[in-house]
Write a structure and sequence with these properties.
The protein is built from ten helices and no strands. With 234 residues, it is an all-alpha fold. Helix 4 crosses helix 5, helix 6 runs parallel beside helix 10 and helix 7 packs antiparallel against helix 10. It is a multi-pass membrane protein.
Length: 234
């Protein structure tokens, strides 16, 4: 899922040279591997202390609140919130930049000066933030702050990651396949979380124990491959 993280690509593109980006990639792989192992170990230890399966997705948050000393718990909670906020910033900046570069500068005002581009980009970030807030109220009415953050990241990861990975490693991927993958990943996540009829189709024990990212990213990959093969030009 991290291959679809906009934060990562923003850091690479900010590098002064290709060599710097390559070095950053190597450091990232090592840092992510170490961080993920520590997270997994912490979650494993914490889950053994928590009998309630309902808090499984938020075990580190729960553990920092219930088990750690106040000072350490506050540091951990601050870190978690900081990660969410920084990710949200990137999730707003990426579509704003895309709209400016791919739509506004290509079709509306190709000769716009830098000051106008910066101003409109900032206004777009604000507008997209408002839209995201309204959407979160509509699709995650009963969810709290952390649940909504996880919900957003699941949609983003399931929709974007397969297409990004295919763009980097599979020459057979097509534009139609990418669009189908993004739509399928998004719709599957929303239906799995929001549509009541899904519970009537999927056995209860499977539905309750399966994270929505699994069916979403699976169907996203399948649609990417099938549509790309169907629309591939010889």
């Amino acid at each position: 899922m991290i291959m679809g993280d906009a934060n990562m690509y923003q850091r690479f593109f900010a590098s002064k040279s290709a060599e710097g980006a390559k070095f950053a990639t190597k450091v990232l792989i090592g840092a992510v591997a170490a961080a993920e192992l520590m997270i997994i170990f912490s979650a494993w230890v914490a889950s053994s202390m928590i009998p309630d399966a309902e808090v499984g997705k938020y075990v580190l948050i729960y553990a920092s609140h219930k088990f750690l000393p106040t000072f350490l718990g506050a540091i951990m909670m601050t870190t978690i919130v900081g990660i969410i906020i920084s990710t949200a910033d990137s999730f707003l900046l990426v579509p704003a930049t895309t709209l400016m570069r791919d739509v506004y500068l290509n079709y509306i005002n190709p000769n716009a000066d830098e000051k106008k581009i910066v101003l409109l980009s900032r206004l777009l970030v604000l507008a997209l933030g408002i839209v995201a807030y309204i959407v979160s109220l509509g699709f995650a009415k009963s969810a709290g702050f952390f649940e909504r953050a996880l919900y957003a990241y699941t949609i983003y990861g399931a929709a974007i990651t397969p297409t990004l990975v295919a763009a980097l490693f599979w020459r057979g991927a097509t534009k139609a396949g990418a669009v189908a993958s993004i739509i399928t990943g998004t719709v599957t996540t929303l239906l799995w979380k929001e549509a009541a009829f899904i519970k009537n189709i999927i056995p209860v024990n499977i539905y309750n124990n399966m994270d929505e990212v699994l069916p979403a990213i699976t169907l996203s990959i399948v649609s990417l491959v099938l549509v790309s093969l169907a629309t591939k030009k010889d």
